[in-house]
Amino acid sequence: MALFVVTYTHPNEAGWTAELLPHLHYLQDQLKSGVLLASGPFMDGGVKSAMLIMSGANREAVLAEIAKDPFAIEGLIEDMTVREWDPIFGALVGHSSRGGGSNG
User: Which of 18, 71, 87, 88 has its CA 20 to 30 A from that of 1?
Assistant: First the structure.
């Protein structure tokens, strides 16, 4: 499975507040299934935004999973990018296309 880095903004404060708990449940389900490897908000104090690292057969599969997110269902996601990523070094090196890469 390939890895993808997803970034998006969700600037609608009222919508974000209303859908936060369902969104967190969605993320927990994605973690349990192995589709989501990591996620979290950007902490720069600007517009609410987040990054997710997801696994999938291809970009379309990742987009299909994101479509299940309550933030997506309610139209709260804006400015989304989905880019394939190859972790050559670090904690996720086991997911590298290079057969395990290097942790050092």
Answer: 71
Alpha-helical regions (H) of the chain: 13-33, 59-66, 70-73
Angle at 69 between CA 58 and CA 61, to 5 degrees: 10
DSSP secondary-structure letter at 93? G
**What is the model's pTM?**
0.90
Q: Is the Cα dihedral 37, 43, 44, 50 positive or negative?
A: positive
C-alpha 26/C-alpha 45 separation (Å) is 24
User: Structure tokens of 42?
Assistant: 């950007």
So what's the pLDDT on residue 72?
97
